[in-house]
Amino acid sequence: MSKLKRTTLYPLYTEWGAKTVNFGGWELPVQFTSIKEEHRAVRERAGLFDVSHMGEAEVKGRGAFEFLQSVITNDMTKLESGKALYTLLCNEKGGTVDDLLIYQLAENDYLLVLNAANTEKDINWFKQHAGESEIINDVSSSFAQLAVQGPKAEQIVQRLTNEDLAQIGFFRFHNNVDLNGINALVSRTGYTGEDGFEIYCSAEKAPSLWKAILNAGEPHGLIPCGLGARDTLRFEARLPLYSQEIDETISPLEAGLGFAVKLQKNSDFIGKEALKKEKESGVKRKLAGIEMVEKGIPRTGYEVLNKNGMTIGYVTSGTQSPTLDKNVGLVLIETPYAELDTELYIKIRNKTVKAVVVPVPFYKKA
Q: Does residue 361 have a cis bond before it (omega within 30 degrees)?
């Protein structure tokens, strides 16, 4: 068994009583106190996450713009320096290779943020499709990423800098921000359904910044949070998790991510023809939200049945929502059954348990 990778913050986990798990080959905290307590902290105050396992790649040099435009589903012309873009990579059949963020640092100079488990695959995929003029480098080991999420995030991070963080809009970022003497890129994209910041700094400086943020946030009720709360938070906001809501067998259109697929953009991109045909003919499956009518929690992989007992799909994510205190799930099912108020059944062990299709996201901040 290969040794698990660790972020530079790993030595600090024990100070806060972290319970760690194997997450995609990384030893990461699933919780520090409890998932529900950390979840509530982010919804009501603020939480601090170590997400340094995420991958980073730089794509820079002559032709970088054209290259990225030819492989992503979104439109690079929407980018400018200081702006971030959510997009997807697709295979020729329209399946999702990965979802990612692209930060434009300058003209033909981009920082890509990739899912940890897909970093090596993605970078190899980029290199496979790139021409000679593109420069693609894996810079993951150089970066740490901390996320401060919650309604008090701006107040907390503002205590560490003279930069006016209110000037950073949604899907915008400021580079070379001085945070307590540490140089950082600070963005505002979020993966919890709350306001907050992603902070990219050098890996060696991350432990010092982690402590500074915890100190600044203590009066505001900020606590360290693990992957468990991160998952329930993103789930309530209907934000996808790779290998569950999206993978190479699921298209962005099936997953409800059509907003990031620009079929009308001038240049072709990998998977465009397949996605175009899928849109014209109509998707055969859709991601929908369900709420359990009868007792039971829908878990990833559980079968979804219609009233006649026929399998029509499966659960991609599900839990007891800490915010709503209801058992809810996301399901990928045949399109006719995705209409609101449709009665469905979830196969939980040897029982079939009734559920109903409900609107998503389950949670949206006021």
A: yes
